[in-house]
Write a sequence for this structure.
């Protein structure tokens, strides 16, 4: 794993070296491995393959449901979509890889809870094109760096997207324009991604670009609380110099 100096998930690195098969469960999602390679990923923060295909208009919902009903128990939904003529091999591969990297980005985000691995567990979608753990980690790091380079305040990733008026002469691209049109001031980037049938990471990237351009409200991450002032050290109090006080008293009395 030389391309990533500090592994995003040391357990993923270890499982890849072991050529393990099963499900890596984390706070924000799950990665499925076969012989140490990632074959599927899912996260509550990212639309699944079904949303990308059906909401995106490439596959009718009933076509997806039939594939799950007929091939899900055999872990061959992807293969069924191709064999039944609903998708071409290349279409399925591109869509599935996009969904895997999208969900893995969120599944591998910093987590506070335990990371677990269930050996032998597979996903009903089946294997399309396995991806090395190194590639998944490398892409996750690249995406984190890209987001921070565009707009380094992650609070916009989970806050409702609230459009702001454009400045005179300011324009946006077609994809960002559609995102702004769907933003009602209540939907978060994850909800907009599902509504539009787009990968969640690309939606986050668009939101951060819009934030940098001043086209959406930008709740900034709260800065660190100021450190409390250091305690004032107690000054040592010496016993009064009685002789000095007497001399001062005598001097004052002499001038009265």
């Amino acid at each position: 794993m030389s391309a990533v100096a500090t592994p995003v998930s040391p357990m993923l690195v270890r499982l890849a070296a072991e050529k393990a098969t099963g499900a890596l469960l984390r706070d924000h999602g799950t990665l499925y491995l076969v012989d140490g390679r990632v074959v599927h990923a899912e996260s509550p923060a990212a639309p699944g393959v079904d949303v990308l295909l059906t909401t995106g208009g490439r596959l009718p919902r009933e076509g997806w449901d039939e594939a799950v009903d007929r091939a899900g128990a055999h872990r061959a939904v992807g293969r069924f979509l191709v064999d039944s003529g609903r998708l071409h091999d290349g279409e399925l591969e591109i869509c599935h890889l996009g969904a895997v990297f999208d969900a893995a980005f969120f599944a591998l985000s910093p987590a506070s809870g335990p990371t677990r691995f269930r050996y032998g567990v597979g996903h009903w979608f089946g294997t399309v094109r396995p991806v090395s753990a190194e590639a998944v980690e490398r892409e996750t790091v690249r995406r984190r760096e890209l987001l921070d380079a565009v707009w380094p305040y992650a609070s916009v990733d989970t806050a409702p997207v609230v459009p702001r008026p454009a400045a005179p002469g300011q324009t946006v691209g077609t994809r960002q324009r559609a995102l702004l049109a769907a933003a009602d001031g209540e939907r978060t980037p994850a909800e907009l991604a599902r509504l539009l049938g787009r990968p969640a990471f690309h939606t986050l990237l668009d939101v951060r670009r819009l934030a940098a351009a001043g086209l959406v409200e930008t709740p900034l991450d709260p800065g660190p609380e100021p450190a409390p002032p250091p305690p004032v050290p107690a000054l040592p109090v010496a016993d009064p110099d009685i002789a000095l006080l007497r001399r001062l008293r005598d001097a004052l009395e002499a001038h009265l």
